[in-house]
TrEMBL record:
Listed name of the protein: Cold-shock protein
Organism, scientific name: Paenibacillus violae
Length: 76
């Protein structure tokens, strides 16, 4: 039986800034526009995270003030 149909519309993807865990054993990551800190730590293993790019579907974040705590440094 075929329970899961393929979606009729392909999601638009773009290169997105993400924070990826620096620990090789951990696969944790978070989108930059959804993180609360300028340099976050991994919530799974508490290791530092590094900035990278990932092809992801576009998601808009209506809350533009996520990093109001002004911790760490701004990535470019």
């Amino acid at each position: 039986m075929y329970f899961r149909r393929k979606s009729l519309v392909d999601l638009v993807q773009e290169n997105t800034k993400v924070w990826a865990c620096n620990n090789e054993d951990c696969k944790g990551w978070i989108r930059d526009n959804f993180s609360f800190e300028y340099v976050p730590i991994c919530h799974q293993c508490l290791s530092p995270m590094i900035s990278s790019l990932k092809m992801l579907p576009i998601i808009s974040n209506s809350n533009k003030n996520m990093k109001s705590l002004h911790k760490g440094r701004l990535i470019s």
